[in-house]
Specification:
Elements: H1 2-14, H2 22-51, H3 54-80, H4 84-107, H5 113-130, H6 133-142, H7 147-175, H8 179-196, H9 204-208, H10 213-229, H11 231-260, H12 265-289, H13 295-308, H14 311-315, H15 319-330, H16 333-346, H17 353-404, H18 406-409
Helix pairs in contact: 2-3, 2-6, 2-7, 2-8, 3-5, 3-10, 3-17, 4-5, 4-6, 4-8, 7-12, 7-16, 10-17, 11-17, 12-15, 12-16, 13-16, 13-17
């Protein structure tokens, strides 16, 4: 018996898919992501088609984003107070029903803009409330020791799905307009089946969760206070937020530069494909390195490498330099995510996973959302090269902040994470 357990442990160390429950978790999480990716590009087209107004379509996108952010703030607390398997079943079941309803209404000519908006906002609300469920369950499935490896695999998987999801959705939409919504419903149904076979240990706190509004608010405040009390988490959030602000603004500037110079739409879309391929390659490297290198030094080195990746844009905004930038900044992203997210969330107690993720991601999203407006205002005044230099300065500042912060710099390799405090 002992020998069999030793073999099973060795096998589990060799492959995440040998870990009990991981295949079911991976299937549920992947199919949920596929369901979102297939209809993502179609939603904007539908908003314009049904409203007949560019302004309405723009406001529709903004309202959906606000809905997701607002519900995400309370969603982390909701996830922490309930059984993760049940929430995964609810998320996949509700989303599948919403997209199937959308497809039927569209196919029968009964889909009005009001109904379309209602269904999409319902989906955004579910996304905000429950999207952190699968990530919160991951620590229970793989354990803290293998979380960085799992995060590295997720980064590559996410890149592959998003890279193929938009072209697939556009192709299905061209063949038959309601098809992307039915495809999303099928993906969500597959996620439901995978979640059904997922068996997680019962958490005592879900039995004792008080349904009262006061208790819910107490848990929400307590969770966010815990995050803000961690100097390591707040240091990481500030550094990542500043880097994300500069990086996202530069991505916006690149797109505007390509459009303004008359670059073909196909070539513009290929930038995302190249970025996705580079991320996928980077995830293969990351899976081999994430457990071996000191995380703090690795984070600093990756940030510095990505800062250098923006130097081609200082030289020129022409297409070859944009491609070089896409490759250089995408290759190290999986390892960066594995080290940062791996350390933070592997050290976060299971009962606080949802609230911690909500607090971290919402704060970083606020940095990123502001950068779009900055790009639109500053780009015409500074010019492309001037704007790139200005944003690159912010990126370099984030690298220096990480290098000078002992809480980040001294994070050890993942096998030793248990020995340090968050």
């Amino acid at each position: 018996m002992a020998e069999a357990k030793a073999k099973a442990k060795a096998k589990a160390k060799g492959s995440l898919f040998a870990v009990p429950n991981y295949p079911a978790w991976f299937g549920a999480d992947t199919f949920l992501l596929c369901g979102s990716a297939v209809h993502w590009i179609v939603i904007s087209l539908m908003a314009y088609e049904l409203s007949g107004s560019v302004t309405m379509a723009g406001w529709f996108s903004t309202i959906r984003g606000v809905m997701s952010v607002v519900t995400q703030v309370i969603g982390g607390t909701f996830v922490d107070r309930h059984d993760h398997r049940t929430l995964l079943l609810a998320q996949s079941g509700i989303c599948g029903a919403l997209w199937c309803t959308m497809g039927v209404l569209y196919a029968t000519g009964r889909l009005t803009f009001a109904l379309f908006m209602l269904l999409c906002l319902s989906s955004s609300a579910v996304f905000g409330l429950l999207d952190g469920t699968s990530n919160a369950a991951l620590i229970t499935v793989v354990g803290p020791e293998r979380y960085a490896q799992a995060e590295s695999l997720n980064q590559g998987r996410d890149a592959a799905v998003r890279m193929s999801g938009s072209p697939l959705g556009a192709t299905l939409y061209g063949l038959w307009s309601p098809a992307p919504f039915f495809a999303s419903a099928v993906c969500d149904a597959a996620a439901f089946v995978c979640a059904f076979f997922l068996h997680l240990p019962e958490r005592p706190e879900t039995k004792q969760a008080n349904a009262g509004v006061g208790a819910f608010i107490h848990d929400l405040v307590e969770g966010w206070q815990w995050v803000f009390a961690s100097r390591t988490i707040m240091s990481a959030v500030l550094i990542m937020g500043l880097f994300e602000f500069g990086a996202f603004a530069l991505r916006q500037a690149v797109n505007l530069q390509l459009v303004s110079t008359g670059t073909d739409a196909l070539l513009i879309s290929l930038v995302n494909v190249v970025s996705g391929v580079a991320t996928l390659v980077g995830s293969l490297v990351s899976s081999r390195l994430c457990d071996r290198i000191p995380a703090g030094r690795g984070i600093i080195a990756i940030l510095a490498f990505m800062a250098l990746g923006y130097v081609p844009l200082v030289i020129s905004g022409n297409y070859p330099f944009v491609i070089a930038n896409a490759i250089l900044t995408s290759l190290p992203m999986p390892l960066f995510g594995a080290l940062v997210n791996g350390f933070v969330f592997s050290k976060t107690p299971v009962e606080r996973q949802g609230r911690t993720r909500a607090a971290v991601m919402t704060t970083i999203m606020l940095f990123g959302s502001a950068s779009g407006a900055v790009a639109g205002e500053a780009l015409p005044r500074l010019g492309f090269q001037g704007f790139v230099v200005a944003m690159l300065v912010l990126v370099v500042v984030s690298v220096v902040m990480a290098a000078l912060n002992p809480r980040i710099r001294t994070i050890p390799a993942s096998p030793h994470w248990a020995e340090v405090e968050l």
